[in-house]
Each structure stands twice: as structure tokens, then as C-alpha cells.
Description:
The complex is a heterodimer.
Chain A: H1 2-20, H2 24-32, H3 35-68, H4 74-80, H5 83-86, H6 89-100, H7 114-139, H8 143-150, H9 155-184, H10 187-192, H11 203-212, H12 216-248
Helix pairs in contact in A: 1-12, 2-12, 3-7, 3-9, 6-7, 7-9, 8-9, 9-12, 11-12
Chain B: H1 3-34, H2 39-45, H3 49-82, H4 88-100, H5 103-114, H6 121-125, H7 134-144, H8 147-160, H9 163-170, H10 175-204, H11 207-213, H12 223-232, H13 236-265
Helix pairs in contact in B: 1-13, 2-13, 3-7, 3-8, 3-10, 3-12, 5-7, 5-11, 7-11, 8-10, 9-10, 10-13, 12-13
Amino acid sequence: MVLYLSLLVLLPLAAVVSQAFDNGLSGFWTAVSSPEAVATLKLTVIASLITVAINAVFGTIIAWVLVRDQFPGKKFVNAFIDLPFALPTIVAGITLIALYGHESPFGINVTATRFSIVLALLFVTLPFVVRAVQPLLLEMDRDMEEAAASLGAGGFTVFRRIIFPNLLPGIGAGVALAFARALGEFGSLILISGNIPFKTLVSSVYIFQLIEQGNSAGASAVSVVLLLASLVLLAAVGLLQRLGTGRRR
Amino acid sequence: MSGATASRWGLRTAALTYLTLLLIIPVATIFYKAFEHGFSAAWESITTHNAIHALELTLLMVAVAVPLNAVFGVACAILLVRHRWWGNRVIDAIINLPFAISPVVIGLSLFLLYGVGGWFAGLSEAGIKILFAVPGMVLASTFVSVPFVVRETVPVLQEIGVDQEQAASTLGASSWQTFWRITLPAIRWGVAYGIVLTTARVLGEFGAVSVVSGKISGQTETLPIFVAKQFDEYNFTGAYAGAVLLALLALSALLAMNLFKRKEVA
């Protein structure tokens, strides 16, 4: 078991870290602090932050509608939420280009803009917050909400004081997972974003270009930054999930 | 209309509009685009030699990576749930890594390990070609899909408890018999769900496989890479037709997921 994981996962990742520091700490720093690398990292982080902020709002709304609301076709909608998990990322990218690209039936062309990056990221990260919040909403006791309402609290007050605090660990875990996914996303972006340096070139595509140019050290250095971010986010998810189960018990 | 009803309708409209614009209309559009120039044009573009080879190669990835990760996943889940020791948290953390790491970084990691000057460069010097060949692509597909079966099996194992397993071994069953007769039947829907997720991920893997494959048409091109290449070469009918084929596979996976999830709950 340990051997399988070590050979398949750990050893390759160790190779990336080792390659990143092949020319010492200064070599790593030169690669990471080049203007182009900094621009891609900045763009990736900002686009991912915007994406998860929108996800936090709409993911919670969708989860609420799927749990508390009743309407015909709800089961179908619920099943459809997972589509971005099942759909290959390259297909996700092409799908968005078909609708919002140069041949758009609506006449909207967003390709090669920063907006297209957020759009693609929203598509591929859609399920995370919904699926993290849904179980918490299902298990939540409605007594508290009813008590608050009977004591005169309005709908928004009940949401802010009762529902939202209970859902917070779920929203947090979903956001962290979506953020990790968004930081590393590649397939759905490569066609739609246009990959213009300093404008729409994200880190994952930048790493890919460096590999193709034979600059393994540079690619590894930027990869290590992404790797570190993934590790921090995974730790955050673990913490939030423990918090979530703690509350439920 | 009362305030509560109004906000209920407002939220429902917001949620459904968002989903329609982001998911439903775009996916419907590729079906339209693929068959825009007739069914036969779409059919021809995905029955070329390179397209069929890409499909076969993608199915080969599934045929190797899915069984590997299914066996590993079940064994690992049993280890994590039934044998408590300090290493479990470390293993658990490592298993989640492929979820959080960019596919390009995963591809790069294999590229460095097996490439020129890498720690395992000896393999290619000995004539075993890993990079720009099928073995490297299989490794990449297996790497990215490690977590699914483990993640889906662990909660089911925790839920079924150990009573039946203990009863079986008290009555003289070997641990192998207990696994086949008691444990596996109890966790089968969870495992099946994990297998479907693994399959969907392997079918669609693009980033990691792109880095290690060299993308040679008719040789190391999987279906997602084929689709990207058609798009780059302005063969939009081919790109959309290939995308539709992949989308249909994804939709069947989605159907299977919902089926297995319902069985799991029941």
C-alpha cells in the first residue's frame, strides 16, 4: 500500500521539488520572481478568488433550493449538478466556447479575456460548495429556525443568525476544495483563455509552456508554489471537516 | 404573495437561471454544433484512423488504471478503517493530493522522474520506453485517479461496522472468506460509485497525459487530446463531434453515479 503510493505519487512529486531547487534557493527564486511568472500567479490567484466567492453565494443558494424547495424536475437538476465532475475538462472548455466564443449564437465573444477564465473556472468548480453544503442542510434541525421565527425574526435574520453559522464549515470546505481545483485548472482554460502573456496566461498553462520549451527548472519552481498552495488548502479542508462533524455531534 | 414565498421564488429563479446559463445551454450547444453540418459529417470526423486510435487508447487507459485503483482503493480503505495506527493520517493526506494538485504538475512530476537525467532514467536506457509512450500515459491516468475509490469506500466501511465480520471469523471463516462473503457485498455500491468516478476521470484526463504523451497523432493521442488538436487545427466539426462522444460517456457515468448512490442509500 505504502509502496504503491510512494512509487506512484510521492516519488514523482519529490522529483519536482528536487528539480525546482536544482540551482539552489536563488535559482528557485529567480524563476518564481520573473515578471511573467509573477503575472501568471497573480492572475491565477485573483481569478480563483473571484470564482470561489461567486461559488460560495450561488453554491449555497443552489444547495438551499435543492434541499428546502419543491418543484418539478428537482431530481433531474440535482443529478445534473455533478456533470462538471464527470465531463472531461477539455469538453468543458469547448462547451463554453461553443456558446460564448467567436461563433456564439448570442453574439457574445469572451474568448481570450480574463472573464473567460472565471467563466471556465465557475463551470468546473460548480459542484464543490453545493455538495459540501447539502448534507449539512439536510441534517440541520429546523426547530431553531422555527423558534427564531416565532420569536419574531424575519427571514433574513433567521438566515444570518441561525442557518448561515451552521452551514459555515460546509461552505468553507467547499470553497477550499474549489480554490485548490481552480488554482491548478488546465484543460478547460487552454482553449478559451487565449493564453496571452501578462493578460490571460494562467500558471498551469505557463508551466505547460515552460515544459514544452525544455525549461524544466522554471516549470518545477512555479509548480512548487502551486504544490504548497494545494497542501495548505488540503490542511484547511481537513480542519473544516472536523469542525463540521464536531458541530453535528 | 407573502415575503417567504417571494424569497423562495427568487432563490429558485436565481439557482435555476445560473445553472441554465452555466451548464445546460452550453452542453446543449455542443450537441447542436456537432450535428450542424449533418450527422454524416460528424460521424465521418470521428471515424477517421486517428480518431478511432484515440478512442482505443482512451479505453486502454481505463482498462489499466481503473482495476489498479479499484483494488488499491478497497485495500487501502480497509487498512484505513480497520487498522488504526499513526500512519493512517499520513496515508490519508497523501491520497488526497491528486485532488488538489494541478494535472500539469502531475504530468511534470512523471516527466522529470522518467525523463533524461531523472531518477528512473535508467529504465528508458534499458529500452523500456515510459515517456511519450503508453506506459507513461497509464501512469499519469493512474496517478490522477488514485483518490476516488478510497474516498467512496471509507465512509461505507465505517458505517457497516465490524459485528458481521467478527461473527464470521468466530464461526471459523478465514479473513479471505470474510472479505469475499461479508465485507465486499456490504460495500459493493460504494466501491461501484468510486469506480464510476475513477472511470470518468481517466476518460477525460487531459493535462497530465498531455505532458507525458508527446501528443503524437495516431500513436499517443487520447480522445481528449484528439479533441483539443482538432480544435487547434480549425476542424470544428471534428472537435465538437469528439466532444459530444466524450460528453455522452460523461452523461452515462452521471447516470450510473445516480443509480449507485440510490442503491447505497437504500
